UniProtKB/TrEMBL annotation, chain A:
GO terms for cellular component: periplasmic space. Signal peptide: none annotated. This is Sugar ABC transporter substrate-binding protein. InterPro entries: Bact_solute-bd_prot1, SBP. It comes from Mesorhizobium atlanticum. The keyword Nucleotide-binding does not apply. It is found in: Periplasm. Belongs to the bacterial solute-binding protein 1 family. PANTHER family: ARABINOSE-BINDING PROTEIN-RELATED, DIACETYLCHITOBIOSE BINDING PROTEIN DASA.
TrEMBL record, chain B:
This is sn-glycerol-3-phosphate transport system permease protein UgpE. The keyword Cell membrane applies. Its main location: membrane. Part of the ABC transporter complex UgpBAEC involved in sn-glycerol-3-phosphate (G3P) import. Probably responsible for the translocation of the substrate across the membrane. The complex is composed of two ATP-binding proteins (UgpC), two transmembrane proteins (UgpA and UgpE) and a solute-binding protein (UgpB). The gene is ugpE. One of its GO terms (biological process) is transmembrane transport. SUPFAM superfamilies: MetI-like (SSF161098). Keywords: Cell inner membrane, Cell membrane, Membrane, Transmembrane, Transmembrane helix, Transport. Pfam families: BPD_transp_1. Residues 79-271 form the ABC transmembrane type-1 domain. The lineage of its organism: Bacteria, Pseudomonadati, Pseudomonadota, Alphaproteobacteria, Hyphomicrobiales. It is a multi-pass membrane protein. It comes from Mesorhizobium atlanticum.
UniProtKB/TrEMBL annotation, chain C:
InterPro entries: MetI-like (IPR000515), MetI-like_sf (IPR035906), UgpAE/MalFG_permease (IPR050809). GO terms for cellular component: plasma membrane. Residues 73-288 form the ABC transmembrane type-1 domain. The keyword Transmembrane applies. Its main location: membrane. It comes from Mesorhizobium atlanticum. Pfam families: BPD_transp_1. It is a multi-pass membrane protein. GO terms for biological process: transmembrane transport. This is Sugar ABC transporter permease. Keywords: Cell membrane, Membrane, Transmembrane, Transmembrane helix, Transport.
Length: 430, 286, 296
């Protein structure tokens, strides 16, 4: 019996509850991630469980710092000995797919994913209708605020509109105490661009529309102007919100130590806040993004992570990789109907994306901090996944930082951002 | 200067001396301070590392951070990798530099000065200039993600050749010619006659190469592509920083940094005479 | 001796010449060749297609590619100039402190100064990022003691690059101090004695004897300091990621990001070639400056 035939049969038989089918030879696959060693240990434990049922497949985990992940993945291009599986950020998928570095998901996996995950997440894991990865982590942005500072400033409720937002930011600002109203992150692409994009979509705008940059819209103009207002009024002090390569630094320190009233951040920093604040973490609450004058209701920006398979890996390795991934993300691998992957993610305070996983982790996701994020998921807009997306994001970061530090006006920032985005996306599409 | 300071010293000795001593102390303190801070921080409790205003001396020094480092990265393995990278590269550099240095110092052959100039020019080439194609070349040689990929491209360098030529040129020709008359081969002469005469320079080059390759970051980072089994300590150290996304772990990072700094620093303290002599030698003779 | 040893010369030179040829000269030529090509770093060299000066037009053009490169080139130039401008005078001052024989402890000072040169840059970067921390760092605390308000250090586009220069100076100055000492030992004591007899004071002796006779040493130091400075990578990669507002985006970091992370091998190579050309211009200018003075 041929190997291919066995695995096809196995996949057809439900993908996940695989019997210990006898492989013709043992297969070694590797899994590349940026997770911390503690989380890697959880993944290794899951891989061991898998190998118990599939003694001929051995999974090793390789880990790199986040900043090196894309380079590492890209550099597999010429070699087949690169990692078999990679955990990637959805923004990177179009380039990786274009360079044929990642393999399309087998039909059985694709149909399972399409039925078990929300459509928005599935689309972020697909290019031109072809599914390339199994989505796992989803991150979404919301307003975090410090209840104690709100109380001290006499603000009753989190701001719902930009007017309320600006008002709250002004009231929360106290230069003598070194306190700023709204923390506007810089020096880290996603930390700069995602909060801006969340405000933009809550004002009825878009970063990219129909594959073309849409930063020249009046809605975008209002968002740039909002940033300029916050900076000029002193309610945001960029020097208090710098990030380092570890996505920590002053922006985190100042929020943790009660020097920043509000910030727009993703759910995953829960563990950082808890470590940094201890008991004071109870002061932190989550609210939807304030709605702009041209917006209808709060929207957030979401982005997702997925696991992909190296297209240059051998046939047997690729089959084993998909088999492992399907198992890892299925309700059979974790506790109480959750997937092993979602258990790992929840250990970091990260939202899983599979519908059955959200159900299985209902209790934990109902916490005061996380529920605020779960509630905005429904109206979240995925960050545009386009060719050149990473470079686009980095160039928008530069423009926004120039605006934050008062080097350009809102008008010029808007014009620069649109022009840069246009040239980057055009070049990438070539 | 010494003469002038001596004469001035006679005029107003105490004030000048106090000033000098103060200046020297200040410079030494400023120079030692960051490393002292590193070691002190590695002994603090996590709460102390985050305190505002900062705590200077840990109240209850603890080795907790070091234990935690050992749980996060494989310290032994990383140190071993660094040792392999640094010592194999150093051995290669010594052999290639002595051979080429000997040829440039003691042979005359057509194109000698041209070849020497071309090689020396590479000393001034920043590694980033060759990084992109080199990265691709090493990949197509099948050396990426391996220690060999880090080591092989660095087995010879212009600085070593330059240093060896400078010192070997000082070895008397008579000594070499006498050995040739006895029928010794050139390699044997290099090993038995030349090498012992320039032993201090060899020691210096060895130490320079060892420390440089122990510390080097850009090239291993680019070659290794996340193969954590082959990480040298400096790359494992950068991994401590991203140990937990968004979490502050100053003590951990400082403990890791202390571990990475120790081997080159210890080597230096014991062997600094060679370092200094060779810098002096290469600068003057250059 | 000439003819008999030609074969030996070949054998002696082969290992070093082959290695340097293959792993330094060949990739350098490839970089130059690639700078005229459109090439993705993920593909074999054979996939490259010739675009003439297209890459150079783009990196000096008005788009974000051009702006980022020009910023990186300028940042590298500022970083290098500041580093050299701080390191050279300090190395002479520290060298004099070590070399003087009035107060004991010169050798100990040399050891302390030089030891920082042994510290991996990665550790330097990590430690200094904590020293610079606006609230939990000791530097702002110390400044507070002498009545200076807290500085933003790495958090402001105005001070971030300078902050990185400072940590570079801290790490490197010991090495250059030893170079300066080497130069000082070469100055004959008799010159000072004669000057003292002529009634020259310490300042005049420094200006008319020490400094001129240190010129060759300082030239050597300047060249090494420049070469070292353009290689700055770790503090940027680890702490600032080139920010804020691109103020610490230096060439080594930027070329790696463009050429390897974004796989735009042609653009990255063109940037590397520009760096090489700038270096050649700088170093030859330095040499001709010193040589002209020598001729005077």
């Amino acid at each position: 019996m041929s190997l291919a035939w066995i695995s096809k049969l196995a996949l057809a038989a439900g993908l996940v509850a695989l019997p210990a089918t006898g492989w013709a030879q043992s297969v070694n696959i590797s899994y590349l991630t940026h997770w911390s060693p503690e989380t890697v240990a959880l993944l290794e434990a899951a891989a061991k469980d898998f190998s118990k049922q599939n003694p001929d497949v051995a999974v090793t985990v390789r880990a790199v710092p986040f900043g090196d992940l894309l380079t590492t993945l890209r550099s597999q291009g010429g070699s087949s000995d690169g990692p078999t599986i990679g955990g990637i950020y959805d923004l990177w998928l179009p380039e990786l797919a274009k360079d044929k570095l990642v393999a399309p998901a087998p039909d059985a996996v694709a149909s399972e994913v399409k039925s078990a995950w929300p459509a928005g997440v599935v689309s972020a894991a697909s290019v031109g209708g072809t599914l390339y990865g199994i989505p796992n982590e989803i991150d979404v942005y919301a307003l975090n605020y410090n209840k104690e500072l709100f109380k001290a400033a006499g603000i009753a409720a989190p701001p719902k509109t930009w007017a309320e937002f600006k008002d709250a930011a002004a009231k929360l600002t106290d230069k003598d105490k070194g306190q700023q109203g709204f923390g506007m992150i810089n020096s880290w692409a996603a930390g700069v661009v995602h909060p801006f994009a969340s405000l933009l979509v809550s004002n009825g705008g878009n970063l990219v529309k129909d594959g073309k940059p849409a930063l020249d819209s009046p809605q975008a103009g209002e968002t740039f102007a909002l940033y300029e207002d916050l900076i000029k009024s002193g309610a945001s002090n960029p020097a208090m919100a710098t990030a380092d390569a570890n996505t920590t630094g002053p922006f985190l320190d100042n929020f943790v130590s009660g020097k920043t009233g509000m910030i727009i951040m993703a759910n995953w920093w829960e563990s950082a806040l808890k470590t940094g604040m201890g008991d004071k973490f109870a002061n932190i609450a989550t609210a939807p993004i304030p709605v702009g004058p041209s917006g209808d209701k709060p929207h957030s920006i979401s982005y997702s992570w997925m696991t992909v398979v190296n297209a240059k890996a051998g046939e047997a390795e690729q089959k084993a990789a998909w088999q492992f991934l399907a198992w890892l993300n299925s309700p059979k691998s974790g506790k109480n109907g959750a997937s092993a992957m979602s258990d790992i993610l929840m250990s970091m305070g990260i939202l899983p994306s599979r519908t059955s996983d959200i159900e299985a982790h209902k209790d934990k996701l109902g916490s005061e901090f996380l529920s605020g994020y779960v509630s905005v998921l429904a109206d979240a807009r995925p960050f545009p996944v386009v060719l050149g997306g990473q470079e686009f994001s980095e160039s928008l970061q530069q423009t926004l930082e120039a605006l934050q530090y008062g080097q350009v006006s809102a008008k010029d920032a808007q014009a620069n951002a649109q022009a840069d985005a246009t040239s980057i996306l055009e070049r990438a599409a070539k | 200067m010494s003469a002038s300071t001596r004469s001035l010293a006679r005029k107003r000795p105490s004030g000048r001396k106090a000033l000098l001593a103060t200046a020297m102390l200040l410079v030494a303190v400023a120079s030692a301070f960051p490393l002292a801070w590193m070691v002190l921080s590695s002994l603090k409790t996590p709460a102390e590392t985050m305190q505002v205003p900062p705590v200077w001396i840990p109240r209850t020094p603890t080795l907790e951070a070091y234990e935690k480092v050992a749980g996060v990265i494989n310290v032994g393995r990383s140190m071993w990798n660094s040792l392999i990278i640094a010592s194999v590269t150093t051995a290669g550099i010594l052999v290639t530099s002595m051979m080429a240095g000997y040829a440039f110092a003691k042979y005359s052959f057509p194109g000698r000065s041209l070849l020497f100039s071309v090689l020396i020019a590479t000393m001034f080439l920043p590694p980033i200039v060759t990084l992109i194609p080199l990265y691709r070349m090493v990949g197509s040689l099948g050396l990426s993600a391996s220690l060999a990929g880090i080591i092989v491209p660095n087995l010879a360098n212009a600085f070593g050749i330059f240093l060896m030529r400078q010192f070997i040129a000082g070895v008397p020709d008579d000594l070499i010619d006498a050995a040739r008359m006895d029928g010794a081969s050139e390699l044997l002469i290099l090993y038995k006659i030349v090498a012992p005469s320039v032993a201090p320079a060899i020691a210096a080059l060895a130490l320079f190469a060892f420390v440089y390759h122990w510390n080097s970051y850009l090239w291993p980072l680019t070659v290794l592509q996340g193969n954590a089994d082959a990480y040298p300590i400096v790359i494992s150290l950068s991994r401590l920083l991203s140990y937990n996304r968004g979490a502050v772990n100053t003590g951990l990072v400082m403990a890791g940094a202390t571990l990475a700094v120790l081997p080159p620093l210890v080597l230096f303290v014991f062997l600094q005479r060679f370092f200094v002599d060779s810098i002096v030698g290469s600068a003057i003779k250059g | 001796m000439a003819k008999a040893f030609r074969a030996s010369a070949g054998i002696m030179l082969a290992p070093a010449v082959t290695l340097i040829g293959v792993f330094v000269l060949l990739p350098m030529l490839l970089t130059i060749w690639l700078s005229f090509q459109d090439w993705s770093t993920q593909t074999p060299f054979s996939e490259a297609s010739f675009v003439g000066f297209g890459n150079f037009n783009e990196i000096f053009g008005p788009t974000s590619v051009g702006r980022d490169f020009k910023t990186a080139l300028l940042n590298t130039a500022i970083y290098t100039a500041l580093s050299v401008a701080l390191i050279l005078p300090l190395s002479v001052v520290f060298g004099l402190l070590v070399y003087q024989r009035e107060v004991a402890g010169g050798t100990a000072l040399r050891t302390v100064l030089f030891s920082t040169y042994m510290v991996p840059m990665i550790a330097v970067a990590l430690v200094w990022s904590k020293l610079y921390s606006p609230s939990e760092g000791p530097l702002n605390q110390l400044l507070g003691l002498i009545g200076v308000g807290p500085q933003p250090w790495l958090s402001s586009p105005r001070s971030a690059l300078v902050s990185i220069v400072l940590l570079n100076v801290w790490q490197q100055v010991g090495y250059f101090t030893v170079l300066a000492i080497a130069g000082l030992t070469q100055i004959p004591g008799s010159l000072y004695e004669a000057a003292t007899l002529d009634g020259a004071n310490g300042r005049e002796q420094f200006r008319f004897i020490t400094l001129p006779l240190l010129r060759r040493t300082l030239l050597f130091s300047a060249v090494i300091a420049i070469i070292n400075a353009v290689q700055v990578f770790e503090p940027v990669a680890l702490i600032t990621q080139g920010g804020p507002v691109g103020s610490t985006n230096v060439l080594t970091y930027h070329v790696r990001r463009v050429g390897i992370e974004r796989a735009q091998g042609g653009l990255g190579s063109a940037m590397a070639v520009m760096l090489m050309l700038s270096l050649i211009v700088c170093v030859s200018a330095l040499f001709s400056l010193v040589n002209r003075k020598d001729g005077e």
